[in-house]
Amino acid sequence: MYNVLIIGGNQGIGLAMAERYRTQGHHVITTSRQFSKNQTSSQQLYCDLTHPDSIVAAFDHLQTEITHIDVLINCAGVLHTENYQPEKSLKQVQADNFQHNYQVNAIGHLLVLQQAEQLLSHSKQAVAVSISARIGSIEDNHLGGWYAYRMSKAALNMGVKTLSIEWQRKYPNIQCLLLHPGTTDTALSKPFQQRLPEGQLQTVDETAEMLQQQIEQNTHTTNQEALFLDYAGKPIPW
Q1: Alpha-carbon separation of residue 111 from 43, 75, 154 (angstroms)
Q2: Transmembrane segments in this chain: where (predicted)?
Q3: Would you call 50 helix, strand, or coil by DSSP?
Q4: For the domain with range 3-230, which CATH number is right: 3.40.50.720, 3.40.30.10, 3.20.20.70, 3.40.50.300?
Q5: Could you give the C-alpha distances from 207 to 41, 157, 202, 203, 231, in angstroms and in order?
Q6: pLDDT tens per residue across span 218-236
Q7: What phi and psi, each to the nearest 5 degrees, are found at residue 8?
């Protein structure tokens, strides 16, 4: 049985993955900014990646509940909100929107890993996963646009890649993964689904199953620098 921590586990891909792991008998803990700030359940914790203090508080509580984390999956991410949509041109770039994207998609992920370091290091074989996106690949950028999302995901990739080099020396038991989930039927993709070719949209359950397969296949491997893979296990250029 694994101890599984899912950041952003109350909806979409995170919720589907939490349900899969629970069904398989693992001990699953989920976090969300939508949970109560006074939440002290052993299975649900309040955590908002835009508020570093809440990340610290969540892990302070976790350390009273568990001795290690075997699987950490950070599903938190933002592409658009009620206040802004992805930029189509440079003229639409707004500093506040950029800062929000970076805080959730990049900085918040690293702060989670910072707090999770001790618990991950105590696992016999741990995997630290961040849900990234192909759109964060610099080499694969052929369409332009979506400045904040592209740049924040590229920053996430660089941050996890850099961390994996540090941890490779310290913790041979931890593997870092960046996984592209594919276009999945969630609130994040909802405004753009009408433009998709038929058959390209995945259900959350389909995505969760494929991502779990990649996690399992890459957990018990020789420790190496971070891998950037799609849901089918195909490497994505950085």
Answers
A1: 21, 14, 16
A2: none
A3: coil
A4: 3.40.50.720
A5: 27, 20, 6, 6, 7
A6: 886 666 889 999 999 999 9
A7: 75, 45
